[in-house]
Known about the structure:
The structure holds two protein chains of two kinds. By secondary structure, chain A is α/β, with parallel strands linked by helices. Chain A has one domain: 2-Layer Sandwich (Beta Polymerase, domain 2). Helix content of chain A is 22%, strand content 28%. Chain A has three helices and seven strands. Chain A has a five-stranded mixed β-sheet with strand order 1-2-5-4-3, covered by helices on one side. Chain A has a two-stranded parallel ribbon with strand order 6-7. In chain A, β1 and β2 form a beta hairpin. The longest helix of chain A is centred in the first third of the chain and has 12 residues. Chain A is elongated and about 70 Å long. By secondary structure, chain B is an alpha+beta fold. Chain B has two domains: 102 residues, Enolase-like, domain 1; 279 residues, Cytochrome-c3 Hydrogenase, chain B. Chain B is 48% helix and 15% strand. In chain B, β4 and β5 form a beta hairpin. In chain B, α4 packs antiparallel against α13. Chain B is globular. About 7% of the residues of chain B have low confidence.
Amino acid sequence: xxxxxxxxxxxxxxxxxxxxxxxPSERRIFxxxxxxxxxxxARALRDGLGFAYLATISGVDMGPxxxxxxxxxxxxxxxxxxxxxxxxxxxxxxxxxxxxxAILYEREIQDMFGIVVEGLSDPRPLILPDxxxxxxxxxxxxxxxxxxxxxxxxxxx
Amino acid sequence: MKIQIPIGPxxxxxxxxxxxxxxxxGEVITDADLRLGYNHRGLEKLAEEKTWIQxxxxxxxxCGICSHSHATCFVQGVEKLxxxxxxxxxxxxxxxxxxxxRVHSHLLWLGVAGHEAGFDSFFMYTWRDREVVxxxxxxxxxxxxxxxxxxxxxVRRDVDDALKGKILGSLDLLRERSRYYLMIGxxxxxxxxxxxxxxxxxxxDAIDLCAVGPTARASGVAQDVRKDDPYGVxxxxxxxxxxxxxxxxxxxxxxxVKELLxxxxxxxxxxxxxxxxxxxxxxPRKAKPGEVVxxxxxxxxxxxxYIKSNGTDKPERLKVRAPTLANYxxxxxxxxxxxxxxxxxxxxxxDPCICCAERTVEVVDARSGEGRVLRFSDxxxxxxxxxxxxxxxxxxxxxx
Lengths: 157, 400
């Protein structure tokens, strides 16, 4: 199936919910949807076009907004669904009811960007340590790593 | 009484320290839980402070076994951003190393599978043959593990005719040995008996949980990025996607041995059709603003990098997803309703190796739900105290 055919089918399935769709190179499609439409879009793409495989979710800190890219793939192409969530109220609905394999990626996004994934069955931290200070989200651009002062247990200094 | 057993996170032989918490009912695992991050190196953050060239060597250090996979995935993405194309000879050498890497990784895994199944001579055989591949990689690149052969716009070293002959000569031996392994895999009853029906993952679950690589292919999902999204030279190389329908560890073994044989064919094709010409072109220092999704079929499954550039000599964002992470959700599924004794085998079958129980167990009282952590020695003492008070056992006589 050609990329152009897939784009047509996507527009037929999702209609006005597709805010933008581009095809920058062969077998790469980028489309934009609103955060609230994500689960429905994922369901329509899975059932209608066989995008059952979610490769990963990439988060990008764009300043006032966070950009999330859900990289789907089927046997013909790779589709990246882009959505933007505001930094002031970063919330996004979970796609795990549609794609159960997304859970680890959503938990990773929560840890690294502080974006709240709503409706997650298991929202515990996945990657960051248990004693990680709250409100510290490493992949936000304004977060800088400072090495904690080294303490030797039992040492005098 | 429901008992939780922590598996991991430390093990000297472990590539990825990870903590698994098994809830067991007798010998049967009823639930499994996962905790990652013991080896998180903050690499994605670090990549934002390094130049494009420095990042090749950084991505190469993501994994100690499929080092070339991450470097190639990154390099081919950046080449697209920079709008340069590696010369054909360079591409052929790049994917020659990639396939040799697949061979050494699969041979390594076969050895681990043999070891976990209690078949240690198989482990020694495969690791001996793996040395042949490691020597070839050292001859091509100068290094056994981190080949550092990729650069933006091609590769850093050429392959001459003498080396070409050596690789082709070694292929004969490797082919013969791999056919022997396929024969063992199909005919050795104790080995197949140990692997069959262990770690069942149905086709539906493999698709739902987004499994990748040999794990998905052994459940009948014919998914291979080299076929689905042909990158580099794979559009012109003939090969088959290997699958199995048994959905268990035996299937994962068979898929990997079949892939070995396919890889030998690919290596032979690449060498026999090695085009003349330069191996690299000059790359600019900066990339135009843009974004690219780069996919690569690593030995363990699909590798995906999302690279975004902002017009400088450093990436704005580099997102890396290694295949093992994609397979964790499926592993939890495989472990459920399995036996404790199968944990190492099931976990090794997705190709990290983790098989170590810590010396504490958490005992959860099924009625109150309260948990406490015990040492094995405490548990043994409690068991001895209990035994002493049981009169019937204390008086029991040895029947013979």
